[in-house]
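Entry 14. Structure prediction run on the chain below.
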Amino acid sequence: MIKAAIVGCSGYTAIEAIKLLLRHPEAEITAATSRQADGNTIDAMHPQLTNRLNLVVEDLSPEEIANRCDVAFCCLPHGASAPIVSKLLAANCRVIDLSADYRLSTPQLYKKWYGEEHTDPGRLGSTPYGLPERFADHIRDAQLIANPGCYPTSAILPLAPLIQHGLIEASGIVVDSKSGASGAGRTPKVGTLYCEINEGFSAYAVGTHRHQPEIIDIVGRFAGTDPQLVFTPHLVPMDRGILSTIYTRPRSGATANQIRECLSQFYENHPFVRIVSHLPVTKYVANTNYCDITVRENDGWIILISALDNLVKGASGAAVQCMNVMFNMDQTLGLGA
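Output returned:
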């Protein structure tokens, strides 16, 4: 059995990772940590785990965590994660980091978008990006994985193969995305209170959202240069899910059918990416690790539409999928496919 620790177990991604690991046939949770630890069991923090996991939440040092597990799922916020991750790695523990701390390529890019110096800059640019559909060979032997952001996953999966094969332009891309409120995390904020979001629909962080450089950075690896891309997120009054509508220009007269065939062939052996004929709907992928993608054509534009669950394929499901790759197991274990 693979021994797994949940570092920072109070948030939504942590509880989702726990639920997935509890049904994983080859994994067991051996530690759960929180700075809020007060001797209670984890089901006191997350009542939905009643009679499912009898584990005391503790405030453990990185060395103590490493002694109890083979892999740590680090569910801490950006900035708080890197100092803990570096100590876990020094203690010979493999880590899947669900924060943004290791996703970007350079310390300069991190400082520009996150407003602070990176505490472990030497690992930026060399840490594998945790998207198994694209980087499984790098993930397999890695000690540290940078788990992708939710919005970036919904954009990178459709865009990367098409740019790589020269079927769409790498300029003039518009990524228009909508997310449920759980994407903002569990910490109370005025903008995500029920009375603020119910019966409303709004854009936010226009031009300043930190997932834009992540999309550009990763897609750029397949374009050979950074794509010209605009990303705008919106908040929808639902619990979970992301729907992204991506506007692109075809190259060399590529048609929607050719683009659909390219995606179908590319993801043929990837069980969690479904190229569908219907228009994707968040409800169809809720509580699953699937990303549904379709293609439409409109007056010279190629429109890519993707849907996924931001807490599963957009976070903890991807992390468990990465764990499966790291330990040479079937990618679908614990994920219901």
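The domain at 2-148+314-326 is CATH 3.40.50.720 (Rossmann fold).
Filed with the rest of this week's runs.
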